[in-house]
Every structure is written in structure tokens, then in C-alpha cells.
């Protein structure tokens, strides 16, 4: 029995794991590029009044079922890697934006005032004081986004993006419990490894 699982893993699992990691990695990377500057801007005093409204919008977007998000992007982007990544980015944005805002807003004002008294520019304060202090909280947001994306990426197979969802849905269609179980275990393994890796990184940064 174990040999059957090993054969499926060698023939399909390795390739699909790589596809899954590519989906997750690319989506989270793009989400960081969008969410980090967005969170920084929304934490600034001149726009704080509007940040809650925007966070509410992102909450609604993330609250949508993954199938609904895929259905929304499908008419515009078709099937394949791009629409899948677009849907995954939407899911990954909120935790990073929310934690970036929280991390920056929780910095003691005395530190900011002291830096201003030393003649530091707003950019220097952000780069040398605020971001380093907020980094553990931001990393926690990226951790949440990455773990959520691993699970959501399974559904992206429905639009031809591949990944471990292909093994799981093929198993469902063929009533093959081996593929369903192996695909689910591999996805869970990836999620656990990513979660633990970010947890260790967060501890080192504190």
C-alpha cells in the first residue's frame, strides 16, 4: 500500500508540489509588493480616517468564497496561471496590509518625536525606526497570507492552474482515495512547513 502512495508521489506528486509552490510563492510575493506600501500609506496621519473604510473593503473581498473570486476574474483573464494568481493575491493582501498598519501604528510616539528632534526626515524615521520595529508584526501577516494561500491554491486547479488541487480533484472524479489523501497531506505539509518557517523567523526578529 505504501508503495502505491510512493509511486503516485514520484509520478505526479513532486511535479504538482512544485507547481503549487510556484503558485503560492508568486502570489504572496506580488501581494507583499502591493500590500506593504499600501499598509505604509494607510498608516500615515493624513489618510488614517480613510484606512478603516479600505480595510473594510479588503475584509469583504477576503470574505468571498474562493470559487466566487475565481468566477469574478475568469471572464476577464480566462483560465490558467494568471487568473489563479490574481485570485490568490486578493486573498493574500488583507493580512499583510492589516498587520503592516497595526505594526506601524503601535510604535510609541515618544520614539518618533525623539527621531524628529534629532532632525531625521520622515523617510529616515520610516526606514530606520518604524519598519524595523514593525517587522515582526508584518512577518506575522505574511505568515498568515502564505498559509491561507496554500489552501486556497488547491481550488485554483478548477481553472487549469495545476498544483496539488489537480491531484485532489482527479482523485475525487475517479473515486481514488489514494490521490485525495496524498494531495491533501502534501498541501497540509507545505502549509505546516511555511507556518513553522515564518514562526522561527518572527522569533529571531523579536
TrEMBL record:
Domain ABC transmembrane type-1 per the UniProt entry, residue ranges: 17-198
Membrane association type: Multi-pass membrane protein
Compartments where located: Cell membrane; Membrane
GO terms for cellular component: plasma membrane
PROSITE patterns registered for this protein in UniProt: ABC_TM1 (PS50928)
Example GO BP: glycine betaine transport
Principal subcellular localization: membrane
Pfam families hit by this protein: BPD_transp_1
UniProtKB keywords: Membrane, Transmembrane, Transmembrane helix, Transport
Annotated transmembrane regions: 20-42, 54-74, 80-97, 133-160, 180-198
Gene3D superfamilies: MetI-like
Highest taxon of the lineage: Bacteria
Keyword Zinc: no
InterPro entries: ABC_transp_perm/SBD (IPR051204), MetI-like (IPR000515), MetI-like_sf (IPR035906)
Family per record: Belongs to the binding-protein-dependent transport system permease family.
Protein name: Binding-protein-dependent transport systems inner membrane component
Naturally occurring in which organism (per UniProt): Halanaerobium hydrogeniformans (Halanaerobium sp. (strain sapolanicus))
